[in-house]
Design brief:
alpha+beta, transcription regulation, Arc Repressor Mutant, subunit A, methyltransferase, transferase, activator, DNA-binding, 56% helix
Length: 200
């Protein structure tokens, strides 16, 4: 076990790094690599966007990567198996839940999940019942509702913090999905709290 851990933590050599960034198929049977930021591992020949060098961990084989809690890439299938669709979608939803405040596009999510945008859109909707874009909106609006109730932060600042810097769009989407503008929603919740206080 100690030997396995040592192998998995080995520093990436220049030779292996060049194999990764050049998608060199001749190295596929020599090692695979995990990307710490996504939790996915790949063959050197994987055509996904190259990771940052400091985020790469080297493994002698797929079993080591799996033991280190990395998931196989959906695109290059480093353990020659498909990642089950529900697990693949879980990778994407977890990423959205953590990074909803940043710029998220279908292309970026597909790249992170190591698949095509079309395939991701189709499988995500099949499993979650909503598209990735709709799920992103749900997460952002849920966070915005919490901030409107729990803080006195301005609406423009809340919009920015949940990844929607276009204030008119944020207000329009909020009203369409929630039934109130952000200001109306905040006022309504304040009134409900006051009513609850007088009833007790």
């Amino acid at each position: 076990m100690a030997e396995r851990m040592n192998n998995s933590m080995e520093k990436i050599t220049e030779e292996k790094w060049q194999a990764i960034i050049n998608n060199d198929e001749t190295y596929n049977d020599k090692f695979c690599y995990g990307v710490k930021t996504t939790g996915v591992f790949c063959k050197p020949s994987c055509k996904s966007r190259p990771p940052k060098k400091e985020n790469v961990e080297i493994f002698t084989n797929a079993d080591q990567a799996i033991l280190a809690n990395f998931r196989p890439c959906k695109r290059c299938k480093p353990n020659n198996e498909h990642l089950p669709d529900n697990e693949w979608v879980t990778v994407v939803t977890e990423y959205i839940d953590k990074h909803f405040g940043g710029k998220l596009t279908l292309e970026k999510l597909a790249d992170i999940a190591h698949g095509s945008p079309y395939h991701l859109h189709r499988i995500f909707k099949k499993i979650k019942g909503v598209t990735p874009v709709e799920y992103i909106q749900q997460v952002r609006l849920k966070q915005a509702k919490e901030q409107l109730i729990q803080t006195n932060i301005g609406i423009a600042e809340i919009a920015l913090s949940v990844g929607m810097p276009n204030l008119p769009y944020f207000i329009t989407l909020f009203k369409k999905k929630i039934g109130y503008t952000p200001a109306q929603y905040r006022q309504m919740k304040l009134m409900e709290d006051k009513d609850d206080g007088t009833k007790k």
